[in-house]
């Protein structure tokens, strides 16, 4: 490989496309004749305004975001949204949450501090290895929204069909699947994603929110926690995460140049298939999620013992594959195969695991 880079299977921060990193490198000392690096630039300058405007425009084109949705770049990662969502969207003080793994659980715990949470479905009974049937949920009349985590990064499950919200707005945490496949934005009231999984550097979240859900009656709420603050100021109420916006903008442009989200989806399907086909025939390794709900982005798998799991993790690391250790709450291994992971990376990993299995029969 050109830069002696490792195949990095981290769940996040994760790989970024090499051409994007090269462009950033080339612009590092002098961004397009401005005489400075983007890191050194005033966010109030015309040059920077051009950067943030282009990032938003390209994201809108990539996802086909309708005009009645705002795009916000907010700091605090995806985690701050666990609080901002109930603080801003609970009008009746009640919301429905679906519990499908570690990240929806965290969102539920935070929402409970703000109002009443109705967990209408859960896959806890089988350690979050599937997505429950949500075609006919018991949704209270006065619930303000229905919340899902659309791809559970730790447990490796993805929603294939959105829940029937019975007319309530849908709020989705797309952090670890954002821009991995086409998305019909108008099916949602709000979508959000921490960008360090499938887009760029850590420390920022993209919020896509329907305009009529942004309230101006929340004057008691700290100003920074109101969506209105960020919407009114074009995501620049205070100094934004200038660097992350710049890098993410490059990735949006890159994905458009690749042909957009249909193309990415097909690549992601092909890539994950290499891994799942291997797991399905292996006698040593087993995927932990039911086939129907498997994630294309995060692939957890186990051997028969913790000791062997640890041995495999160490062996992969020595062979140049990094960050395959599963999250401590699930154990085993996890291969995160985001947009920027090349198919050759997954093929090389599977070759290695096959060899390991043959040698340890
Ligand atoms: C990583 C992750 C988060 C938390 O993101 P931070 O930016 O670290 O706050 C939330 N939800 C999901 C699905 C994630 O994968």
Tell me what you see in this structure.
The chain contains nine helices and 14 strands. It has helices at residues 18-26, 46-63, 79-89, 102-111, 227-232, 242-258, 261-281, 306-318, 343-359, and strands at 7-8, 69-74, 94-99, 116-122, 145-149, 151-152, 157-158, 169-173, 190-194, 205-210, 286-287, 298-302, 321-322, 333-336. A seven-stranded mixed sheet has the order 2-10-9-8-5-3-4. It has a three-stranded antiparallel sheet with strand order 11-12-14. Strands 1-13 form a two-stranded parallel sheet. The radius of gyration is 21 Å and the shape is globular. Pyridoxal-5'-phosphate binds next to loops.
| Distinct ligands, ions and cofactors found in the model | pyridoxal-5'-phosphate
Fraction in helix: 25-40%
Major sheet: order of its strands? Answer: 2-10-9-8-5-3-4
What is the distance, rounded to the nearest whole angstrom, between the alpha carbons of the first and last residues? 31 Å
Total strands: 14
Helices, by number, come to 9
The low-confidence runs, each spanning 5 or more residues with pLDDT under 50, are none
What does the largest sheet look like?
Answer: 7 strands, mixed
Rg over CA atoms, rounded to whole Å, is 21 Å
Q: Give the overall shape, derived from the CA principal axes.
A: globular
Q: SSE string, helix = H, strand = E?
A: EHHEHEHEEEEEEEHHHEEHEEH
Proportion of beta-strand residues: 15-25%
The SS-based structural class is alpha/beta
Indicate the mean pLDDT. Answer: 97
């Amino acid at each position: 490989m050109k830069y002696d880079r490792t195949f990095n299977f981290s769940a996040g921060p994760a790989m970024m496309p090499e051409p994007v990193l090269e462009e950033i490198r080339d612009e590092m000392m002098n961004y397009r004749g401005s005489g400075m690096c983007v890191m050194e630039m005033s966010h109030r300058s015309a040059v920077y305004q051009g950067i943030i405007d282009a990032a938003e425009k390209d994201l809108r084109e990539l996802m086909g975001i309708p005009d009645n949705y705002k795009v916000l770049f907010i700091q605090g990662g995806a985690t701050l949204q666990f609080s901002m969502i109930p603080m801003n969207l609970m009008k009746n003080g009640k919301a429905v949450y679906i519990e499908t793994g570690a990240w929806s659980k965290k969102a539920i715990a935070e929402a409970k501090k703000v109002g009443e949470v109705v967990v209408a479905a859960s896959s806890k009974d089988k350690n979050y290895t599937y997505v429950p049937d949500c075609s006919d949920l018991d949704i209270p009349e006065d619930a303000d929204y229905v919340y899902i985590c659309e791809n559970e990064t730790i447990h490796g499950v993805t929603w294939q069909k959105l829940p029937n919200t019975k007319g309530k707005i849908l709020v989705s945490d797309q952090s670890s699947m954002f821009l991995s496949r086409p998305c019909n934005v108008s099916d949602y009231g709000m979508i959000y994603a921490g960008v360090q999984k499938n887009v760029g550097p850590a420390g920022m979240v993209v919020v896509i929110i329907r305009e009529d859900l942004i309230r101006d009656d929340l004057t008691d709420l700290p100003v920074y926690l109101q969506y209105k603050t960020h919407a009114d100021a074009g995501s620049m109420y205070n100094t934004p995460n200038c660097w992350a916006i710049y890098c993410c903008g490059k990735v949006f442009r890159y994905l458009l140049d690749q042909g957009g989200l249909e193309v990415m989806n097909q690549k992601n399907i092909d890539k994950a298939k290499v891994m799942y086909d291997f797991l399905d025939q292996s006698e040593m390794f087993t995927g932990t999620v039911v086939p129907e709900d498997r994630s294309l982005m995060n692939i957890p798998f186990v051997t028969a013992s913790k000791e062997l799991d640890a041995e495999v993790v160490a062996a992969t690391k020595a062979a140049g594959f990094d960050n395959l250790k599963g999250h401590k709450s699930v154990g085993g291994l996890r291969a995160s195969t985001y947009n920027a992971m090349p198919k050759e990376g997954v093929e090389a990993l599977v070759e290695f695991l096959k060899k390991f299995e043959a040698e340890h029969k």
